[in-house]
């Protein structure tokens, strides 16, 4: 059995004592491994975990999907809470990230560096392409960029000021879990394009993708793109779509209207279970 608990999301749930903030964090439990996937922006995900009695200190590893603050900023807090598990990131994770509006730069990075990891004796491993974390549990990076319409907003830049360049999100990684129903894919923000990511995984593992959970970054997509994206997802096996964080109301509406796909929003405190 695979259990995925939402520790942080933009949206609140029926559990009104939990705190929702802009960001994402999941705690994933499988028969072979326990994973903290993304950390939110600060220590709020820890407080939520305590209120739900989620055993976050048992995490075998921590995965930061990319180095934007709303996914990785809380890592520092988890370490200070006592979680010393191996950290997995994509390549170039520590390159500073910003938003640039044409005049000013706004820092969007994770807020920690390799010196912080060394100080706290945190083992750090990079996923540049494909890693098997345990039996049936895989990390993916270096996604194919086959869908040209899956563009990255030009405001996202990275590098040392003032010589920043457009962020291609080469640091983004995601998780795929093998289940009896097919692959369950957990994504953070899907900046390289959700279809680019899913098709990379499907071709590599040669298995249908049963469920996609997390942020799909369709929040800025128009109706045509959202409809096409869901249609293409179904072609590679999609039966369940658990949207979070940056997916947007339009994507949620289109998914709810699709009779072939079950869908929901994974808000703070929500759990997803699959055999």
Automatic annotation (TrEMBL):
It comes from the Bacteria. Residues 23-111 form the Metallo-beta-lactamase domain. One of its GO terms (molecular function) is transferase activity. It holds the Pfam family Lactamase_B. Keywords: Hydrolase. PANTHER family: METALLO-BETA-LACTAMASE SUPERFAMILY PROTEIN, METALLO-BETA-LACTAMASE SUPERFAMILY PROTEIN (AFU_ORTHOLOGUE AFUA_3G07630). This is MBL fold metallo-hydrolase.
């Amino acid at each position: 059995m695979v259990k995925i608990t939402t520790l942080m999301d933009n949206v609140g749930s029926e559990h009104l004592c939990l705190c929702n903030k802009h960001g994402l964090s999941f705690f994933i439990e499988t028969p072979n491994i326990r994973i903290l996937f993304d950390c939110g922006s600060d220590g709020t995900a820890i407080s939520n975990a305590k209120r739900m009695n989620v055993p976050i200190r048992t995490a075998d590893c921590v995965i930061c999907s990319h180095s934007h603050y709303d996914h990785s900023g809380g890592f520092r807090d988890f370490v200070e809470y006592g979680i010393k598990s191996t950290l997995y990131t994509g390549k170039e994770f520590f390159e500073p990230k910003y938003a640039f509006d044409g005049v000013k730069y706004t820092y969007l990075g994770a807020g920690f560096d390799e010196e912080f990891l060394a100080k706290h004796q945190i083992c750090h491993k990079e996923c540049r392409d494909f890693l098997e974390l345990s039996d049936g549990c895989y990390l993916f990076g270096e996604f194919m960029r086959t869908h040209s319409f899956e563009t990255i907003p030009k405001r996202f830049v990275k590098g040392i000021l003032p010589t920043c360049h457009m962020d291609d999100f080469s640091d983004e990684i995601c998780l795929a879990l093998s289940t009896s129903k097919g692959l369950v894919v957990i994504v953070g923000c899907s900046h390289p394009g959700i279809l680019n990511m899913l098709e990379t995984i499907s071709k590599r593992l040669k298995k249908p993708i049963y469920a996609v959970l997390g942020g799909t970054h369709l929040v800025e997509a128009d109706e045509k793109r959202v409809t096409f994206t869901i249609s293409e997802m179904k072609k590679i096996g999609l039966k369940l779509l658990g949207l979070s964080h940056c997916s947007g109301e339009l994507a949620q509406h289109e998914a709810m209207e699709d009779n072939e796909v079950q869908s929901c929003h994974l808000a703070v405190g929500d759990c997803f279970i699959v055999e």
